[in-house]
């Protein structure tokens, strides 16, 4: 049912006492009666913003009396470190937003969404609010989306840098991992359970293991991020700067995203070294129980044997020794390397401990892929059971291609549309790539994904290869962006390691020759893979050597095929696999 939603009332003024007094006087004498009533007597939302180191700082709030509340802010500028003081030293602006349907719950939701959007904007350095406060059902909650869209559109027209196009905001990695998302009921229940468990463990000084199982796209990162931020907000209220809470993730792109979130929400202003990879965390914190809480996102990426950068035997064992409460987030279907392989008894030690302590949580609701159950079942059958069922044709688009070139052109078309600009070509690791080294073939400038169809060649550089062509300013610009957010990466191919943990609007997946179709089954051929970290043998806990290459290559394909929010495009290099997929795509 479409609703006719009236326009919001938005006024922008200089952010100082004189301008506020003039605005109050003006609104009383010159504004139309209904607008005057909405600004003077209804709840409003407001945005203070001021320039800070070539970016903006912002504070978003809501109030039943905008004039009294703003004067309070002006009078709170005594301490140098307060945002009010810093704002008053700058050329600040104030947006005041009203709407005839605003009530307390609706303004809180608008405030929360504005904070969420603004922390995801490249040009925003820091959002100075405390925690968000998303609301449950209320009247008129069904109007919220329409009202917010009108507010953001009008703000965007006022300042495109501070309020960019909504699609750009929603495509950012920071937006997707933000702790300010409104949680699902499943996530909210888990959050309450975990926050209570952490509080109890800290009060009793008890060691606790919390274990979260969840497959790709079930909202693990948002839940993790939300609890992490909630704990810091609680400590901020107590003014406890001794609190040690760390986020550990063995993934360069995810470290970047979590670090940016911590920076934008002001956590790193008071608390140092809160986000890191596992080895860095272990080097910084050597004493037992020296950290209050540690969150391990993507714990399946931790090393379970020594390697070049880690001299221990198991990173999870080492992290657990250093923290009083450990939150482990795990998905066994995303283990990609032999030195990250988990023997069942190794991970069950921690899962069973969490079950014993009533701290085991499983997330099941698929939040990434906007797909129906039949489509999700098709992807599960392909990536887990190694069978190809008939491809369903519903709103979620699965397309099979005869050539990588046509797939690439289709992904380019999607990326040129504002609604699906975060569309990229990605591939399994069946072509050589050595980071930081030049290709052995002197005639090649880049490590490439290289496909021959008879005498026709299609080739495209692997991820991070085109960065060498950027100038200093361009490199600086992309520093805070995830791989897929960088504009030039439309001309690259992403790998499993680059895209793991991230979303794409449309994923164009090229399956190399390690993925074959024989006798009615998908089979994996490690001899065709260039992923040495997945194909070498592993020494087990009992001293025997085993190979899990086929299982790890299967995980690699699942990671790739669960990235697309709106669609999945596939080209298979293996002739029999390509024909089986084409047959599965034919309409009845």
Salient structural properties:
single chain, 588 residues, alpha/beta, Rossmann fold, six-stranded parallel β-sheet
Characterization of the model:
By secondary structure, the chain is an alpha/beta fold. It has 3 domains: 156 residues, no CATH class; 179 residues, P-loop containing nucleotide triphosphate hydrolases (Rossmann fold, 3-Layer(aba) Sandwich), CATH 3.40.50; 213 residues. 39% of the residues lie in helices and 20% in strands. The chain contains 22 helices and 22 strands. The protein has a 6-stranded parallel sheet. Strands 1-4-2-3-5 form a 5-stranded mixed sheet, with helices on both faces. The protein has a 5-stranded parallel sheet with strand order 12-22-17-13-16, with helices on both faces. Strand 14 and strand 15 form a beta hairpin. Helix 1 packs antiparallel against helix 3 and helix 9 crosses helix 10. The model has no long low-confidence stretch (mean pLDDT 93).
């Amino acid at each position: 049912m479409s609703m006719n939603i009236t326009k919001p009332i938005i006024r922008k003024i200089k952010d100082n006492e004189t301008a506020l007094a003039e605005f109050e006087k003006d609104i009383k004498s010159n504004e139309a009666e209904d607008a005057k009533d909405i600004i003077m007597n209804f709840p409003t939302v407001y945005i203070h913003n001021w320039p800070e180191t070539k970016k903006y700082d912002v504070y978003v709030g809501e109030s039943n009396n905008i004039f009294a509340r703003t004067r309070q802010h002006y009078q709170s500028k005594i301490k140098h470190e307060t945002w009010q003081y810093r704002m008053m030293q700058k050329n600040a602006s104030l947006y005041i937003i009203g709407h005839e349907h605003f009530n307390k719950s609706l303004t809180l939701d608008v405030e929360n969404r504005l904070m969420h959007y603004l922390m995801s904007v490249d040009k925003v350095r820091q959002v100075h609010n405390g925690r968000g406060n998303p609301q449950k059902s209320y009247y008129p909650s069904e109007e919220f989306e329409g009202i917010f869209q009108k507010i953001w559109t009008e703000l965007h027209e006022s300042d495109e840098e501070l309020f960019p196009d909504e699609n750009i905001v929603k495509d950012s990695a920071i937006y997707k991992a933000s702790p300010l998302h409104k949680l699902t009921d499943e996530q909210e229940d888990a959050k309450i359970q975990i926050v209570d468990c952490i509080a109890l463990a800290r009060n009793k000084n008890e060691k606790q293991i919390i274990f979260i199982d969840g497959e790709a796209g079930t909202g693990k990162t948002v839940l993790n991020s939300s609890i992490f931020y909630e704990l810091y907000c609680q400590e901020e209220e107590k003014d406890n700067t001794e609190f040690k809470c760390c986020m550990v993730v063995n993934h360069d792109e995810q470290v970047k995203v979590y670090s940016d979130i911590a920076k934008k929400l002001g956590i790193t202003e008071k608390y140092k070294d809160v986000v890191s990879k596992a080895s860095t965390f272990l080097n910084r914190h050597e004493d037992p129980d020296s950290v209050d809480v540690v969150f391990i996102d993507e714990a399946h990426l931790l090393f379970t044997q020594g390697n070049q950068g880690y001299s221990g035997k198991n990173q999870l064992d080492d992290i657990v020794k250093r923290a009083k409460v450990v939150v482990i987030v795990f998905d066994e279907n995303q283990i990609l390397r032999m030195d990250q392989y988990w023997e069942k008894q190794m991970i069950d030690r921690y899962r069973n401990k969490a079950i014993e302590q009533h701290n085991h949580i499983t997330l099941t609701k698929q939040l990434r892929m906007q797909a129906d159950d039949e489509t999700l079942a098709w992807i599960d059958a392909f990536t887990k059971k190694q069978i190809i069922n008939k491809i369903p044709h519903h709103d979620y688009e699965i397309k099979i291609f005869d050539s990588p070139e046509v797939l690439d052109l289709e992904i380019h078309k999607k990326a040129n549309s504002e609604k699906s600009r975060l569309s990229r070509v990605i591939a399994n690791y069946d072509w050589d790539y050595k980071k930081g080294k030049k290709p052995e073939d002197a005639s090649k400038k880049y490590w490439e994904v290289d496909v021959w169809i008879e005498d026709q060649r299609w080739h495209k550089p692997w991820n991070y290869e085109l960065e060498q062509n950027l100038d200093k300013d361009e490199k600086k610009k992309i520093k805070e962006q995830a791989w897929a957010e960088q504009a030039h990466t439309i001309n690259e191919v992403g790998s499993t390691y680059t895209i793991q943990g991230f979303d794409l609007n449309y994923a164009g997946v090229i399956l190399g020759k390690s993925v074959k179709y024989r006798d009615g089954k998908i089979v994996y051929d490690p001899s065709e893979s260039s992923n040495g970290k997945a194909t070498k043998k592993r020494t087990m806990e009992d001293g025997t050597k085993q190979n899990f290459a086929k299982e790890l290559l299967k995980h690699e394909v699942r990671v790739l095929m669960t990235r697309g929010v709106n669609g999945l495009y596939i080209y298979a290099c293996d002739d029999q696999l390509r024909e089986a997929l084409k047959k599965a795509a034919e309409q009845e």
